[in-house]
Automatic annotation (TrEMBL):
Keywords: Phosphoprotein. The keyword Membrane does not apply. Residues 11-164 form the Response regulatory domain. It comes from Rugamonas rubra. This is Response regulator receiver domain-containing protein. The lineage of its organism: Bacteria, Pseudomonadati, Pseudomonadota, Betaproteobacteria, Burkholderiales. GO terms for biological process: phosphorelay signal transduction system. Pfam families: Response_reg. The modification 4-aspartylphosphate is found at D101. It comes from the Bacteria.
Length: 336
């Protein structure tokens, strides 16, 4: 199990020619699972194609072609832009999973999936009409990712389970290239199943619905459905040594140096004018910046702790998922 570089709730798009079926499905699905319905395939295609342009991730990668040959140039990735995806109110409107009926008058479900094959959305054929041979052929052609029969007694539970699974797969694929870049530096933990299990359990226990890697200090920003942010700071043994050396070179109090040396504290110096590390301005007030680290034994030893993330790390209050759901549901009622 690997962690994606970022993840947040997304839209599930339901396409079926039966408006009554769509209303029933939308009502029965988990209320935390935002969805958008279409009974007209042309309207669905137009919306999906527009969503690709609307939801491009604002990441910049710079290539140093001044000092190196094009095939040997350095790549600079602005990591701060990753957690700032959380500042985009429409991030939750990103379509990640399509649930499509097979038998529809304008085009059948497989023709629809073929029309959006270039999009990164995962696709589920959810139908009572197509036989398994058609579904297997579509799967082998890469047109669909799952096939569920409407007549299955556990169809709804199975659908919700597969949507959750495919949403994770969506973000894993979306961040694959980014992850390959950042794990070369301080983000080895993204590929460590032990740390991934800790993140998964934290999200379940504390109700986090979003996460993004954080640049300085190294870690993960978690956000719950109400928009509350927490930073999971993650340090390796090497990182803990660096914390100690910076504090020592900045004439930190002996009490802090001893605590760092003995791995009793993990500090996050979060003042607006700082860089996350100890500075002389902190002085003897270092206790209020520290937490007792927990240890995760994976491919290497990780020291981690949760901290509240001050508002100055964001340009404005975050648009929460709870607010999005409320606005989305109201908009759906008005459209209906």
């Amino acid at each position: 199990m690997q962690l994606p570089v970022y993840s947040h709730p997304t839209l599930t798009v339901l396409v079926d020619d039966s408006d009554s079926f769509l209303r029933s499905m939308s009502f029965q699905l988990d209320p935390m699972l935002a969805n958008k319905t279409f009974h007209d395939t042309s309207a669905a295609l137009a919306w999906l194609r527009d969503s690709v342009r609307r939801d491009e991730v604002p990441l910049h990668v710079n290539f140093d072609t001044q000092n190196e040959a094009p095939d040997q140039c350095n790549v600079a990735l602005d990591l701060e832009r990753i957690y700032r995806i959380s500042e985009r109110p429409q991030r939750f409107a990103t379509p990640s999973v399509l649930v499509v009926d097979y038998s529809m008058p304008q085009m059948n479900g497989l023709e629809f999936c073929q029309a959006v094959q270039h999009l990164p959305c995962k696709k589920i054929l959810f139908t009572g009409a197509a036989d398994e041979k058609i579904a297997v052929t579509a799967f082998n052609r890469g047109l669909i990712d799952r096939y569920i029969k409407k007549s299955d007694d556990q169809a709804l539970d199975l659908l919700e389970s597969e949507i959750a699974c495919l949403q994770k797969a969506y973000f894993a694929e979306q961040s694959e290239t980014l992850r390959d870049l950042v794990v070369l530096h301080n983000y080895h933990f993204l590929q460590d199943p032990a740390l991934a299990a800790v993140v998964q359990e934290l999200s379940r226990k504390m109700g986090f619905v979003e996460h993004y890697i954080f640049p300085n200090p190294t870690g993960i920003v978690f956000i719950d459905k109400h928009g509350k942010t927490m930073l999971m700071m993650v340090e390796t043994e090497q990182g803990m040594c660096a914390q100690y050396e910076i504090a020592r070179d900045s004439d930190a109090p002996p009490s802090l140096l001893a605590a760092l040396l003995e791995r009793r504290v993990l500090p996050f110096f979060s003042d607006a004018d700082g860089d996350g590390m100890y500075s002389r301005a902190v002085g003897d007030n270092w206790h209020r910046y520290c937490a007792a680290p927990q240890v995760c034994h994976g491919r290497e030893m990780y020291f981690w702790a949760l901290f509240e993330l001050p508002a100055h790390y964001f340009g404005a209050p975050l648009h929460s998922y709870a607010r999005f759901l409320q606005e989305h549901n109201v908009a759906g009622e008005v459209a209906a």
